[in-house]
Amino acid sequence: MYLKDIIPETYIPAIITSSVALTAAIIAQFLNNWLIYKREKKKYKQEIFEKFISEHLIDVLRYPSAVTRLIDDKSIDKEIDISKNLDEMFKKIHYGDKRLQSAFLSYKTFAYMDDVNPSNYKSLEKYLQYKICYYFLLYCKYIFKEINFKLEKSMENTITHATKEYALLFIYTRERDYNEAKDMLISINRFHLNSLSYIPLERLEKFSNEQILEIILKVDNELKNYLDN
């Protein structure tokens, strides 16, 4: 059976023309929808920058510097209250990615967990705060790239440095305690050590415990070698 046996031969050119036109229209509509989606996605990421990142970035960057300069917790909190800042950030956490939202969920609920040791409360709280700040800065770098936001080199270096400082703080707070984490960051800055070079800018949640402990060992050894000499 041939096509002409079903459809009159005189209709076939018109059908072919209509089919080509319909296919072209479908493709055009698909491309149009894709371009609209791409524009809306970029617009939303611009909104993330304007309404979320720009409001909190400077305060997040200031905290590690306050830790190394002021040392005393009361003085640090007076200059930059990280708890208050994270509470403000939480109000717009819908702008964050899944990692940031998950970290905030842990932070907001840890106090209600039965297995939280009161003597370890502060270290756990700080660990979760540092983890949020670490993820926030990684998210900032991602958004800057997505919206093609050009940072000055000095600002880019500041963000990278602070990201590594938060990574060190949350690693040491988790594996040791808050005071030891703070003391280590102070030592690194005071003695101008290169220990932060051991801290990757990758997703630390992918690292095994052995890899984390290896980072700690390298940082510990550098400080020990400096003090011994």
Number of helices: 9
Q: Helix proportion of residues, in percent?
A: over 70%
**Rg (CA only):** 27 Å
- C-alpha termini separation: 94 Å
Give the number of DSSP strands.
Answer: 0
The stretches of 5 or more residues where confidence is low (pLDDT under 50) are 30-37
Largest sheet descriptor: none
Overall geometry:
globular
Report on the structure:
With 229 residues, the protein is mostly helical. The protein has 9 helices and no strands. The longest helix has 59 residues. The protein starts with a helix and ends with a helix. About 3% of the residues have low confidence.
Which key terms come to mind for this protein?
single chain; mainly alpha; 229 residues; globular; 76% helix; 9 helices
Summarize, please.
The protein has 229 residues and is mainly alpha-helical. It has helices spanning 3-6, 12-70, 73-79, 82-90, 98-109, 121-146, 153-175, 178-190, 209-228. The relative contact order is 0.08.
Give me the secondary-structure topology:
Layout lengths: L2 H4 L5 H59 L2 H7 L2 H9 L7 H12 L11 H26 L6 H23 L2 H13 L18 H20 L1
